[in-house]
């Protein structure tokens, strides 16, 4: 029985074309800005996103941290959705290393933030008792909102509120190209109202490492110093950038296949008694579904699935996440569904008895 790995699109491996590009990459010392492959990747990314400059980072987590460090001062408050990856999954870096305080507002079903909620959360400046709100962090696609997509209008509505209050806007676009493909709009349309954006090369785009942050030249100059401070000056990392250039050329359009597979998966899961998901809400490659008490807790399902060689992850006690990517095709989805149906049926019968 083959293993079907739906834990994350981060499990994707570099393509043969990427490996060839990596082997042949022109490199130099990037701390001296002398790595031609990195320079090309940064320029290409900035151009694709309609920003002045780009900066290669080691990871999405590093990009988010550096964005906060570059935009904020110690003791500032930053606002984000209550399901934000920065809040849930980045080891507390915003408070631990950037010394800012996080204020949460509710995320809507697709990860959107209500402009009214945001306006209420933003603190007025000039009061010595309260921290100034200096940054809004958005996320597109939204991981914990089942890969939900922010439209350009969703982003503009929130960004306008932040900007009117003098705060900057960072977009965690780890899966930005998934959003662009799902909405059939150029990625630059999704980021025109934010001050900076970072996207990951190492998720569904299949690169081994990397994230690229893009913004104004002034912001990137500031981010460069913070990247150095957190140990992200990577020298001959053109070998990584070479894979990134291949990804931007050849891996974006195919994301539509992952999205179709995710919808197929969600439709199948919705037909399994004891699991609930609305297949029509799935827009990209992440399917999060709830597990009914009659089945048990998510951890029970995850262990039983792993015995059937289906690997998944869990965002909460009663929910499971399955992520589609380049290494799973329609046949794997059907096989994962039949194994899941068997596992869930088995757990329900055992719980009844
Ligand atoms: N997300 C990972 C896990 O951390 C949950 C995954 O498997 O989805 N922003 C978003 C929206 C992300 O989903 C992730 C990774 C990151 C940032 C961090 O990226 P890396 O892993 O490169 O630090």
How is this fold's topology laid out?
Elements: E1 4-5, H1 16-23, H2 36-49, E2 53-57, H3 60-71, E3 77-81, H4 85-89, H5 93-96, E4 101-105, H6 115-121, E5 133-139, H7 152-164, E6 168-172, H8 176-183, H9 187-191, E7 196-200, E8 211-215, H10 217-229, H11 238-250, H12 255-270, E9 275-276, E10 286-291, H13 298-307, E11 310-311, E12 313-316, E13 319-323, H14 330-352
Parallel strand pairs: 1-11, 3-4, 3-5, 5-6, 6-7
Antiparallel strand pairs: 2-8, 7-8, 9-10, 10-13, 12-13
Ligand TLP binds next to helix 3 and helix 4.
Q: Helix tally? A: 14
Please provide the count of β strands. 13
By helix and strand content, what is the structural category? alpha/beta
The whole-number mean of residue pLDDT values reads: 97
Sum this structure up briefly.
By secondary structure, this protein is of the alpha/beta class.
Please describe what this structure looks like.
The chain has 353 residues and is of the alpha/beta class. It folds into 2 domains: 12-250, Aspartate Aminotransferase, domain 2 (3-Layer(aba) Sandwich), CATH 3.40.640.10; 254-352, Aspartate Aminotransferase, domain 1. It is built from 14 helices and 13 strands. It has helices at 16-23, 36-49, 60-71, 85-89, 93-96, 115-121, 152-164, 176-183, 187-191, 217-229, 238-250, 255-270, 298-307, 330-352; strands at residues 4-5, 53-57, 77-81, 101-105, 133-139, 168-172, 196-200, 211-215, 275-276, 286-291, 310-311, 313-316, 319-323. The strands form 3 sheets. The chain has a 7-stranded mixed β-sheet with strand order 2-8-7-6-5-3-4, with helices on both faces. Strands 9-10-13-12 form a 4-stranded antiparallel β-sheet. It has a two-stranded parallel sheet with strand order 1-11. Strand 12 and strand 13 form a beta hairpin. It is globular and about 65 Å long. Ligand TLP binds at residues 8, 10, 59-61, 85, 89, 139, 143, 172, 174, 200, 202, 211.
């Amino acid at each position: 029985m083959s293993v079907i790995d739906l834990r994350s699109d981060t499990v994707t491996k570099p393509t043969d074309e990427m490996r060839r590009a990596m082997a042949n990459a022109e490199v130099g010392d990037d701390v001296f800005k002398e790595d031609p492959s990195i320079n090309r990747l940064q320029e290409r990314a900035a151009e694709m996103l309609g920003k002045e400059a780009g900066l290669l980072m080691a990871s999405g987590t590093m990009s988010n941290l550096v964005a906060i460090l570059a935009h904020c001062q110690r003791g500032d408050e930053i606002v984000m959705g209550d399901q934000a990856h920065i809040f849930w999954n980045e080891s507390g870096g915003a408070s631990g290393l950037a010394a800012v305080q996080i204020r949460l507002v509710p995320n809507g079903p697709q990860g959107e933030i209500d402009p009214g909620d945001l306006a209420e959360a933003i603190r007025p400046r000039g009061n010595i008792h309260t921290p100034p709100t200096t940054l809004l962090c958005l996320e597109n696609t939204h991981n914990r909102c089942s890969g939900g997509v922010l439209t350009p209008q969703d982003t503009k509505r929130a960004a306008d509120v932040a900007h009117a209050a003098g705060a900057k806007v960072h977009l965690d676009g780890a899966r930005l190209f998934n959003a662009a493909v799902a909405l059939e709009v150029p990625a630059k349309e999704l980021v025109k109202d934010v001050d900076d954006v970072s996207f990951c090369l190492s998720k569904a785009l299949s690169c081994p490492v990397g994230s690229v942050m893009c913004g104004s030249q002034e912001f990137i100059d500031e981010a460069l110093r913070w990247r150095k401070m957190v140990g992200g000056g990577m020298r001959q990392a053109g070998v990584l950038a070479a894979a990134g250039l291949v990804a931007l050329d050849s891996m974006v359009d195919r994301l539509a296949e992952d999205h179709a597979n995710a919808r197929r998966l969600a439709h199948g899961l919705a037909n399994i008694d004891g699991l609930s998901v609305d297949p029509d809400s799935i827009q990209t490659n992440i399917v999060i579904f709830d597990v009914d008490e009659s089945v048990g807790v998510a951890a029970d399902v995850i262990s039983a699935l792993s015995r059937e060689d289906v690997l998944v992850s869990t965002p909460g006690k009663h929910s499971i996440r399955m992520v589609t990517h380049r290494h799973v095709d329609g046949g794997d989805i059907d096989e994962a569904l039949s194994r899941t149906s068997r596992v869930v049926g088995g757990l329900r019968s055992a719980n009844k008895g």
